[in-house]
Write a structure and sequence with these properties.
- With 123 residues, the chain is of the alpha+beta class.
- It has a single domain, classed as Alpha-Beta Complex (Aspartate Aminotransferase, domain 1).
- It is 38% helix and 24% strand.
- It contains five helices and six strands, in the order ααββββαββαα.
- The protein has a six-stranded antiparallel sheet with strand order 1-2-3-4-6-5.
- The protein starts with a helix and ends with a helix.
């Protein structure tokens, strides 16, 4: 199954956030970026179940990993404090994923230079 089959409205939700651009990296991850910085990616390496990586605050990640043991884990090949890997599952609703992605979006947006942030918000 694809991520869109688990969470049919997620990609539209992400691309409708102000200033979001989509690209692909060398691993063919579909990345959602704000100001050139990723905050979320759909990952499918073809060898395992697809998963979503999301950037959030360290404390929030710890809370989510504790609440959804085995389904939300530190993201592989990423900073484990700020990036979590979410395995799509019926126990993790689309609303929960949207909440995590919204937090990631706001976190990355807040770290952009003020001039870049203001330009994005004015679009």
């Amino acid at each position: 199954m694809t991520i869109s089959e688990y969470y049919p409205d997620l990609e539209t939700f992400l691309t409708n956030l102000k200033g979001v651009k989509v690209d692909y990296n060398e691993w063919n991850w579909k990345r959602f970026n704000i100001g050139g910085k990723p905050f979320c990616a759909f990952c499918n390496d073809g060898t395992s179940k697809p998963y979503i990586v999301v950037k959030c605050e360290q404390e929030f990640n710890e809370l989510m990993r504790s609440a959804y043991k085995g389904l939300i884990k530190p993201a592989p090949n990423m900073n484990k404090y700020y990036w979590s890997a979410v395995t799509p599952d019926m126990d993790i609703t689309q609303d929960i994923i949207k909440k995590m992605c919204s937090r990631g979006y706001r976190l990355v947006l807040s770290k952009l230079p003020e001039s870049v942030r203001n330009k994005i918000l004015e679009e």
